[in-house]
Every structure is written in structure tokens, then in C-alpha cells.
Design goal:
Layout: H1 15-23, E1 27-33, H2 36-52, E2 56-61, E3 74-79, E4 88-90, H3 97-108, H4 118-127, H5 138-145, E5 150-151, H6 162-168, H7 180-188, H8 198-214, H9 220-225, E6 233-234, H10 243-256, H11 258-265, H12 271-291, E7 293-297, E8 300-304, H13 313-326, E9 332-336, E10 340-345, H14 350-361, E11 367-370, E12 374-378, H15 385-396
Parallel strand pairs: 1-2, 1-3, 3-4, 8-9
Antiparallel strand pairs: 5-6, 7-8, 9-10, 10-12, 11-12
Helix pairs in contact: 1-3, 2-3, 2-4, 2-10, 2-11, 3-4, 4-5, 4-10, 6-7, 10-11, 10-12, 10-13, 12-13, 14-15
Length: about 400
């Protein structure tokens, strides 16, 4: 841990002060929350540190811990969540962490060097659940002016293969989600041309929107939530086909295989393993949402996780988000695994619920991380499920 006083402890510290502290460090250990927004933020910062000649190490995890800095001149930077012992924290209080990271990376980049990648930053913004122009719009305008992004009709996916994209996106939950064969059959019925034009892209968007909204199990929120998957920004020079697809892969790989996610965010050639992680993550999450046992309580909707996700906080988190957005009739969703759970809330309450579970049932290893809308928590695997549900209900109503 750094022996120097550091003015960057507050999450919303000025970008220039954070950049200055990083530039002066002998070594920077970047510790990211395992989600797409924080992963993009960590990538932006690491690339800027590389350009500035500052040695660094990046890692991500569901329950991040510092592990200690290498020496007295090192700095531990927490990205996306609070980390015990961190010298500095980058976590936006009023928007995506990746947007703040872009500003820090820009301030850190030496004169004459290329600036931070706006497409990576925008992918982080989308991964956080925001529209790419929802912050100040400046990044999106720059990306559009340079041709880095171009909005078109259709469905957001990281790949050109339509069936692959429909089956494995976690931006929506449809009847064919998680099932490549079902997605292939649905696309075949559309009789699309080999080269998709604007009309074909609109047909695909209609397929997804109508399938989602027309499902008997869909909630009113589903029709709104599916908009994230529609009218994407094409990204011709990025590793993935659309901005939404890029964000989807970042979020999935951060939760599924964080090491691969770090390599991707740093700009290494990790596209193939990242897509494999995306497919695995999506298939498991969609199956759990479709097949998991559920229960409805006053204010809380509970999903009992299947074995393939029961001990995996990243998968549980994605199931909770998908359930909240497309299936849950209650404002809070709790997905219960074995000694770990995820909470997703429509407006607020996820952090309060996760904190309560960690405090009441965590024992020596209890921990949680997250925010008002999404959180994951680790607790004693022997804790009675009924008591877990009661604790979440108490703080959610």
C-alpha cells in the first residue's frame, strides 16, 4: 500500500488529480469489479498507463480484494466498487465508471500520443445500462464524426452470424434465447437475403421485439427493456460488430472469465475466447431463467438457481438482471445459489439487500459488492433460504 497521502480516495475526485497520482506511481495495481462497465474503465486506464510508461497490473473479480501493492511507491486503484486498502477509487456516483475513466485516461495520456478509445468507453457506458449519448453526448458525437460508430436498424450483436447473435445476446430474453437451433429456425422463417439490407435488419428487430413482448410470461417492463437490443450502432473498426454487442461481450466475459476479459480490455487479441465465454455465459443464464424454480413474495421475486450457475456469482448476476427486466412481477429479484446470491432492483434496494445478507448470514467470509440496482453477495451456504428471503423482503419493502 502506498505510504504517500493521496487526494483521490473519493470516487468522484477530479480526473486530473487521479491522473496525477497514477502518473507519479512506480506501479499501479488496478482492481476492477467484474462487470462490463468497470472492465472497460480498467482497460482505458491501463492503456493510458502503458502510453505514459507506468507499469501496471489489472485484475477483475466478483468480490475484489487488493492483495496488497507491490511496494511503498505503488498505488492500488479500485475501479467500479470500493476495495479495502485501495489508495484511490474510480467509481462514478452519477453515471458509468467507464465515462469517468475516459476523462482520467485522457488526462493521463502524454502529449502527442493517441487519446483513449471512445468506442471502448461507449461500450462500457452501454454495459452499464445507459444509452451511449446519455452522459454528455460528447463521446458519441466524436465517435460518429470519425465513423467509429454508425447507427442502423436491427439487433445489437457482437457477430455477423444472425442466429448466433439472437441465441446468445443477454440484452434481451426471447423464446429462442440460449438455444442456437431455435434461433436458427426463427431466422429461417424470415427468408432474409444473404446480405442484410436495412429492411432485413428491421425485420430482425421486429422478430425480437414481438417475440419478447408477446411472451405470456413477459412483464410490462420487458417491452421497454428490449429496446437495449434494438437500433444498434455498427462499429466497423472494433473487435465486435456493434456497440451493444461489444458491451454484451464485455459484461459476459467479465463475469464468466475475468482473465480473458482483462486481456480483451487491454487490447490483446482475445476476441475468440471472449466470444466463447459470451456464448457459455448466455446459454447458462437463459436456461436458468427459463427452467429455474421461482417464487413470488410481497415485493420480491425469487429464482432458485440451477446447478450450472449456483456457485457462479457472475452468472447469478446476469440471471437476476434478465429476470428483473423480462420476467419478474415484483420490483426486487433475488436469485439464490449455494452460498452466493444476486439481487436486481427496478430502481433501488439491491445494495441494501446484499449488505443485509452479508451482515446477517455472511460469517467470516461474507462479502458483497454492487449498487442500488444490482449486487452480488457471498454468505454461509447453510443459511436457510426462507430466512434469506425474509431479510431481503425486510429491506425491500
Amino acid at each position: 500500500m502506498s505510504a504517500r497521502p493521496d487526494p483521490t480516495q473519493t470516487p468522484d475526485a477530479p480526473a486530473e488529480s487521479v491522473a496525477s497520482a497514477l502518473a507519479d506511481a512506480a506501479f499501479v495495481r488496478v482492481v476492477c469489479r467484474a462487470d462490463g462497465d468497470a472492465l472497460a474503465a480498467g482497460g482505458l486506464l491501463a492503456r493510458a498507463l502503458r502510453r505514459a510508461g507506468v507499469p501496471f497490473h489489472v485484475r477483475a473479480g466478483a468480490f475484489p480484494a487488493t492483495g496488497g501493492a507491490p511496494d511503498d511507491d505503488g498505488v492500488v486503484l479500485a475501479v467500479g466498487s470500493d476495495v479495502p486498502g485501495a489508495d484511490a477509487t474510480l467509481r462514478a456516483t452519477d453515471g458509468p465508471t467507464s465515462r469517468r475513466a475516459y476523462d482520467v485516461a485522457e488526462a493521463l495520456t502524454p502529449a502527442g500520443e493517441p487519446g483513449p478509445d471512445p468506442v471502448l468507453a461507449l461500450a462500457g457506458v452501454v454495459a452499464a445500462g445507459d444509452h451511449p449519448g446519455a452522459t454528455d453526448g460528447g463521446l458519441l458525437a466524436v465517435a460518429e464524426e470519425t465513423g467509429a460508430v454508425d447507427r442502423r436498424p436491427g439487433v445489437a450483436a457482437p457477430v455477423a452470424d444472425v442466429a448466433d447473435g439472437l441465441a446468445h445476446t443477454t440484452l434481451a430474453h426471447a423464446s429462442f434465447s440460449g438455444d442456437r437451433e431455435a434461433a436458427t429456425a426463427a431466422v429461417a422463417e424470415l427468408d432474409l437475403p444473404a446480405e442484410l439490407d436495412a429492411a432485413a435488419h428491421r425485420t430482425l428487430a421486429s422478430l425480437v421485439a414481438l417475440d419478447v413482448a408477446g411472451d405470456d410470461d413477459a412483464t410490462a417492463r420487458a417491452a421497454e427493456s428490449v429496446e437495449r437490443a434494438l437500433r444498434p450502432y455498427a462499429t466497423p473498426d472494433a473487435p465486435f460488430a456493434t456497440l451493444g454487442g461489444y458491451a454484451d461481450v464485455l459484461d459476459a466475459v467479465a463475469r464468466e472469465r475475468p482473465g480473458t476479459g482483462v486481456a480483451l480490455a487491454l487490447g490483446h487479441d482475445a476476441r475468440t475466447p471472449a466470444l466463447a465465454a459470451w456464448r457459455d455465459h448466455a446459454a447458462a443464464a437463459h436456461r436458468t431463467l427459463r427452467e429455474g424454480h421461482t417464487g413470488r413474495y410481497d415485493g420480491v421475486y425469487v429464482v432458485r438457481a440451477a446447478d450450472e450457475v449456483a456457485t457462479h456469482p457472475g452468472r447469478l448476476d446476469t440471471v437476476a438482471r434478465l429476470c428483473r427486466d423480462f420476467r419478474a412481477p415484483e420490483p426486487t429479484t433475488l436469485v439464490v445459489g449455494e452460498g452466493v446470491a444476486a439481487v436486481a432492483a427496478v430502481e433501488r434496494g439491491a445494495a441494501d439487500a446484499a449488505s443485509a445478507l452479508a451482515d446477517d448470514f455472511g460469517g467470516d467470509d461474507g462479502a458483497w459488492t454492487g449498487d442500488a440496482e444490482r449486487a452480488v453477495v457471498r454468505f454461509d451456504a447453510d443459511a436457510p433460504e426462507a430466512e434469506l428471503i425474509a431479510a431481503v423482503r425486510e429491506v425491500s419493502t
